[in-house]
Design brief:
32% of the residues lie in helices and 23% in strands. It is of the alpha/beta class. It is flat and about 85 Å long. GO terms for molecular function: iron ion binding; N-acetyltransferase activity; tRNA N(6)-L-threonylcarbamoyladenine synthase activity.
């Protein structure tokens, strides 16, 4: 059995594959490992390192039997990245995940080497790691050796604990040997303890994580190994410290406020649990994904076609230097050489990065063929299969020949290899090539490709046009294949089983949202029509909110939100995947027990730093385990994209990434963290911020006013419900930033918040009684008046005929009503999301990903980091 191991509790990013031979647990061996000292690199390094370890071990994710992860203690942010990644891999593959104390794994690693070298039989180890804030994490263990014997033991004597360094060293016995993490190696309190030090660089390793798990289960035995194949208790991070959150002091509520209306009860609060959408329809034809294609051959024949006669039998012969030229299938080991050729040939057309190339090489349905001269890579071709096995289509991504080898027709070797692989399965093949590259166009015509359309200004930054070419499906000629014999049979390795009833032009996209206090997982089915139109159907919208955990603090506590995301991600994901399977069953579509999407997307910014890390780390791990592309998405763009789903959860008819009405539209985003007016020039494309709040966001102002009025948290729904019973004209609260000399599109809500406070204070001084519902209605009217007036003004100024409303405050009844009235008067079409999609959710991220995929965006790398301050101009990280 093969076990994936992960730990991120120290400055090291640890991952690896450990093999336990059947019936011989004492012979366990580390097949591949990555232990990189990078205190801030857990998010960028962990998942790519896991993929590299699998490749080095010659394994696929499906070959894994279990996952073991260090559960700390450790610095919270890094610890959660490892645990979220491990949990997601296990979930995606339906295999058990087991947690083990990271400090125990450190003890095992050190004892494993010391006991072998010194023949020590038993001993005590004090393990110390950095807890920051001038504190240490620690634990004391007793171990017996040799660890691989059936009677070896690992016993916890004290801890794990967190405390001041002086206290730890005073309280722990002086007889224990000490192991410290690298971050503590030079600490002044440890200088006089040198004689007790066994290691100044303690950290878990893949081997020690497995050994610690086995020892905790009773020893290195077959019974303990079998235990790794059974489900364990849910993972629990060893934080050892409470979140830094203090409940605010009770605020005195003014005696001037009349709460009679509140006493009558407020019902109908916003539901944040999410729903499963109903059925929808599919479209007709898959369109080729936007990919680049550059020059191939430097020498051409009379008609601009490479001279194929020059290389009729090139493969298998020797070059001038005596090196064999051969065709091979490429893997991760070839990524660096591919990136070198890519950077040289495509400097003017946005060359792919090394990370993107690695991502392509690891994608489930993408294969790369290469031509090598000896061991030197001198050319390559990328081939991707889209759609189900029963009716596939193919895309050629890139054909590239090293400049030193161009002009001798090596691209023909690559085309022969690729077309043989295609014809064994069947299906149309699409590609794109610069219109000014006559040599390449001629080459493709020789292989049956014909032009079908032109994409203007496609290649950037050069601005060159792209010619889209298509090759019809051909049958497989077995006799010709046997006589040619230049491509190994391994090039036709079987692909992963697919849904045999899936329409060839559909794509299922899973979205993950964790930017604040909602853990959202959504599933959207995207259908692309023959002419490029995109429609979407919502399959699942599952949301777990930690709002109630924040209520007593009067606002979102980032650490509480991050902890809640780690606990909620797995259950929420499993609910969404069950919805995906149920959707297929309801439509009579064949299913498998472990359903998976075609792509995974996640919010990578903007948002709370710790919260973003949990969702994005999990999403990358799911994508890697399922071997599907990953897309890092902009949270704000998601709020815009979700407006394209109608009340039934189905896409608005005729909507495309460049669809009519969306090339010039205005989006008003209103939430607790953002209040912005955005100019949209195509969904999934960069948006321009025309205006934003200069102080409080609108949702934040609602919460602060609600606290002032004694209405609790969150304030928006309560104020909205009370306002329905109040008089919006009772108090003339100010409309900030509405004078002629003020910014046309910016907002300010701190003034109206202060005005409410002053009004209530004055009423109390004067002994007046004011209905709280009138205060709520008047405050809400002031906020909604400014929001809608400026949004409509922006639409008129840019000539936009479409308005999109998004963000949590878009659920506000008065905002919806007033904006609808003003858009109607101005002849503007208004799109507002259904209520379940107003708050943060995974559907909006999946919807945005669908649009950028349809527009031809490349996947993000698995090393994608989060950006809490991500600019709105960036819809997807690439």
């Amino acid at each position: 059995m093969h076990i994936l191991t992960v730990d991120s509790s120290t400055s090291y990013v640890v991952s690896g594959i450990v093999e336990i031979p059947e019936g011989r647990p004492q012979e366990l061996v580390t097949r591949a490992q990555r232990c990189v000292d990078n205190p801030r690199g857990h998010m960028e390094l962990l998942t790519p390192n896991i993929v590299e370890c699998l490749a080095e071990a010659g394994l696929e994710p499906a070959d894994l039997s279990a996952v073991i992860v260090g559960t700390g203690p450790g610095p919270f942010t890094g610890l959660r990245v490892g645990m979220a990644t491990a949990q997601a891999f296990a979930d995606a593959l339906s295999i058990p995940v087991h947690g083990v104390e990271s400090l125990a794994a450190i003890a095992v690693d050190v004892w494993d080497s010391v006991s072998v070298n010194d023949s020590m039989r038993t001993g005590e180890l004090l393990i110390l790691t950095d807890a920051r804030r001038r504190e240490w994490f620690g634990a004391r263990y007793e171990l017996s050796a040799p660890l691989l014997s059936t009677n070896a033991t690992l016993r916890t004597l004290a801890g794990p604990f967190v405390s001041k360094p002086d206290d730890i060293l005073e309280q722990q016995p002086g007889s224990s040997s000490i192991v410290v993490a690298k971050a503590l190696a030079q600490h002044e309190l440890l200088v006089d303890k040198a004689h007790r030090m066994l290691s100044l660089d303690g950290r878990p390793t893949p081997r020690s994580l497995v050994l610690a798990a086995l020892l905790k289960a009773g020893g290195v035995s077959n019974a303990s190994v079998r235990g790794l194949l059974t489900p364990s208790e849910p993972l629990r991070a060893l934080y050892l410290r409470r979140p830094d959150a203090v409940e605010p002091k009770a605020q005195r509520v003014s005696s001037a406020l009349d709460f009679t209306a509140l006493a009558r009860g407020i019902e109908g609060m916003v539901d944040t649990q999410g729903t499963t959408a109903g059925e929808g329809t599919t479209g007709s034809e898959t369109v080729v994904r936007a990919e680049k294609m550059a020059g191939l051959e430097g020498t051409t024949g009379a008609e601009g076609v490479a001279d194929v006669d020059k290389i009729q039998k090139t493969e298998g012969v020797q070059s001038a230097e005596g090196e064999n030229i051969r065709t091979v299938e490429l893997g991760q080991a070839d990524a660096v050489a591919m990136e070198s050729i890519e950077r040289d040939l495509f400097a003017q057309d946005s060359p792919w990065s090394l990370d993107l190339i690695r991502s392509e090489l690891s994608a489930m349905n993408t294969r790369y063929f290469g031509v090598k001269c000896g061991e030197e890579l001198i050319g390559y071709l990328g081939l991707a299969k889209v759609g189900p096995d029963v009716d596939p289509e193919w895309e050629i991504h890139t054909v590239a020949i090293d400049r030193n080898y161009q002009g001798v027709g090596l691209s023909h070797l690559l085309m022969v290899a690729a077309m043989r692989a295609v014809d064994k399965v069947g299906g149309k093949v699409f590609l794109e090539v610069r219109t000014d590259n006559a040599a390449a166009v001629g080459l493709y015509r020789r292989y049956g490709f014909e032009p079908i359309s032109v994409r203007k200004n496609y290649y950037q930054p050069s601005g060159a046009d792209a010619l889209v070419m298509m090759r019809p499906s051909y049958g497989y000629d077995e006799e010709a294949e046997n006589s040619a014999g230049c491509v190994d049979d391994s090039l036709n390795a079987p692909t992963q089983p697919c849904d045999t009833n899936r329409d060839k032009n559909t794509m299922v996209i899973l979205g993950v949202e964790s930017s604040c206090d909602e853990t959202g997982v959504g599933v959207v089915e995207m259908t692309r029509g023959e002419t490029g139109e995109v429609s979407m159907r919502m399959i699942s919208n599952r949301v777990a909110s930690s709002m109630q955990e924040h209520a007593r603090f009067g606002g979102v506590v980032p650490e509480i939100a991050s902890r809640a995301h780690l606990e909620a991600m797995g259950p929420t994901m499993r609910q969404a995947l069950r919805d995906l399977r149920a959707d297929k069953v309801s439509r009579g579509v064949a299913t498998v027990s472990n359903e998976k999407p075609d792509a995974v997307a996640a919010t990578v910014g903007p948002g709370l730093a710790g919260a973003l890390l949990v969702g994005a780390a999990a999403a990358k791990a799911y994508a890697a385990a399922w071997q599907v592309p990953f897309y890092g998405m902009n949270h704000l763009g998601g709020h815009v994209a979700v407006d394209l789903l109608d009340e039934a959860g189905e896409g608005l008819g005729g909507t495309t990434a460049q669809g009519e009405g969306l090339n010039n539209a205005i989006a008003l985003l209103v939430s607790g963290g953002h209040t912005q007016i955005l100019h949209i020039r195509g969904v999934g494309k960069p948006m321009e911020e025309l205006g934003s709040t200069l102080d409080d966001a609108a949702g934040e102002a609602y919460d602060k006013v609600a606290r002032l009025l004694g209405l609790g948290y969150p304030g928006g729904p309560v104020i909205d419900k009370l306002a329905m019973r109040g008089n919006a004209k009772a108090v003339a609260f100010p409309r900030a930033m509405m004078r002629q000399q003020d910014s046309r599109y910016d907002f300010s809500f701190s003034g109206v918040k202060t005005a409410v406070a002053r009004y209530v204070e004055q009423a109390e001084r004067e002994g007046k009684s004011i209905p709280v519902e009138d205060v709520c209605a008047s405050f809400q009217e002031a906020v909604c008046d400014v929001l809608t007036a400026k949004a409509v003004r922006a639409a008129k100024d840019v000539g936009a005929g479409t308005m999109l409303l998004g963000g949590g405050v878009s659920a506000n009844s008065r905002l919806r009503e007033l904006l609808a009235q003003r858009c109607r008067s101005a002849g503007i079409v208004l799109h507002i999301p259904q209520f379940s999609l107003c708050t943060d959710n995974g559907v909006m991220i999946a919807a945005l990903a669908a649009q950028v995929i349809a527009a031809g965006a490349h996947p993000s790398g698995l090393d994608t980091d989060t950006d809490p301050s991500l600019e709105v101009e960036i819809p997807v990280i690439q």
